[in-house]
Structures are given as C-alpha cells and as structure tokens.
TrEMBL record:
Domain Grh/CP2 DB, first and last residues per copy: 61-300
Compositional bias per record (Basic and acidic residues), positions renumbered to this chain: 241-265
Stretches for region Disordered: 239-268, 294-322
GO cellular component, one term: nucleus
Pfam name, any one: CP2
Protein name per its UniProtKB record: Transcription factor CP2
UniProt keywords, alphabetically: DNA-binding, Nucleus
Matching PANTHER family: ALPHA-GLOBIN TRANSCRIPTION FACTOR CP2, TRANSCRIPTION FACTOR CP2
Amino acid sequence: MAWALKLPLADEVIESGLVQDFDASLSGIGQELGAGAYSMSDVLALPIFKQEESSLPSDNENKILPFQYVLCAATSPAVKLHDETLTYLNQGQSYEIRMLDNRKLGELPEINGKLVKSIFRVVFHDRRLQYTEHQQLEGWRWNRPGDRILDIDIPMSVGIIDPRANPNQLNTVEFLWDPAKRTSVFIQVHCISTEFTMRKHGGEKGVPFRVQIDTFKENENGEYTEHLHSASCQIKVFKPKGADRKQKTDREKMEKRTPHEKEKYQPSYETTILTECSPWPEITYVNNSPSPGFNSSHSSFSLGEGNGSPNHQPEPPPPVTDVSLKLNVSYMQCLIIL
C-alpha cells in the first residue's frame, strides 16, 4: 500500500522536472539575435502573407498551391540527396515550361473564367552576385548590345496572351494566360554561366542561375497585383550542345561509382518541377495598360534585386550610392572618348 501511495507523487515529481527542463530549453531562444537582426514585419509585408489570420492554412497540407510549372529538361544525376535539383540548358535553345492548373475542386473560384499574369525571371542563384545584380546585368548589356538574357519563343508557345518584354529589363518577360486552357511557354536563355565568372586560367566553373515564375490575379481595379503562387528551379546555361555534353559526363561519372556511393545521389528525372518559393521582392506596378506587342516599351513591373531561392527569405541588396553612380557615369564617358 505504501508503494502504491508513493507512485502518484513520483509521477508529479517527474512531470514537474520535465516542465522545468522544457522551460529552460526555451528560455534562450531568440536572445542571440539582436533586435534589429531580423524583422518579422518585413516577412509579413510580402503579398503571400497579406491575408486575414483566420484564412491562413492550419498546416502545410492545407496550403493552396494553385499551379505547377514543369520545365521540360532533365535534371542532373550528380546532385546529392536532399539538395536542390540542377538542370543544364543550352544557350539560345527553346525549352518548354508547362503551366498546369493544380487547384483542387472549389479552390480560388474567383479566377475561374479569368486570366492570370505570370512574370518569368532569370536571376542569380549565388547570394554574392545578387548584391551586384544590377551592375552585372549592365556589364552584360555593354558586352552584348541589342541582346536579351531571356526571351519567349512565341511561335512555339501555346495559350499565352499579350507577351511583353521591357527592353530595360533584359532578364524578365511576362504574359497573361487562362488556367483552364492548355498553356506552354517556350523560353530561351541567351547568357551562359561562365559569362559572370572571373577569367583566370580557362575552364572556369560557371555560376548557377534561377528561373523564377511569379503568378498574379486581378484586383478590383483590374491590375494584376494580387500574388497567387511563385516557384523556381536552379539551372546552368552552356554554349550550344554544352548542356548535352555535361549531362553525359555526369551520367558517366555516376556509372563509375559504387552502389553505396550512388545511394547518396538523386536519380536524373526527365523533367524539372519548379519548387515553391517566396515571391520576388520589391515588385512595383506602375502601369498595367495593354502593350501593343512583344518587346514594346512599358513599365508594368520593375526589376527586383534579391534572392528568390525557395529555401530562404529574399533580402534586398544595399542601395546604390551616389559615388557608385558617379563612377558608372565616368566609366561611360571614358568608353565614349575611346
């Protein structure tokens, strides 16, 4: 009987100790970050979080992923498990991206029978290059006058409406499309990964890029500013047929590995599914009036600078100072004199 009476007391002691240990484990969380190190207000200001708390999904399984984008190009077999996929593309070759309506029955009924707008971007994957993205793209413009980084192959594309490309934004294109109809857009990437690598001894390792797609619906004013979905994937771009050779080289290397080593790598998939990511930051909409045609000048969106990786929150780069602007002007003047 004495043993039976002591059992509840022992349980209370154990439970009290567990509570104290749990409280102690939580007591230091967040103290290592300064007050200004990370601001949740910046995250909550993003369009994807601008909704009433009651409408937020209770868990990831209930999260609405209305669209799926599939790049019709094989992934590399030389990517380790749990790493992001990597896809090789040939410079200037047309690659299909299928725009699929992934909504469940009854989801987002407000876009039924209406068009949505998608903005395509080719951006830097490397954080170091993201902070100097504007300068990198301007340098590319000087070296390749009249060329674009990203284009749409309109004759091959299906279901796209009013495709547009701002001549001042070489890495961005946009168009309208109807989710209820078959839509495939063929893109061409004209820059290669080694163009942004420091020249040293030849055979430089090219930098990876990202293809990011942001999709929006109309607001009450008929402007496509309400964010619906964003997704991206990692790519490397080679000179014509270089992607095929690189894919073959990776496959041959994997075949030489032992079965135990092969288990550490992902299989190569025939297509690349873009994974959900944060919406591209600092998108401002100045004018949404229809453009007379592709490549016509307009200002419906601006070039954002930041990180579009799905694994971490985008961060804006430091602002360009007056000193750097003066240096750029001086550099242009020198080129004119020469």
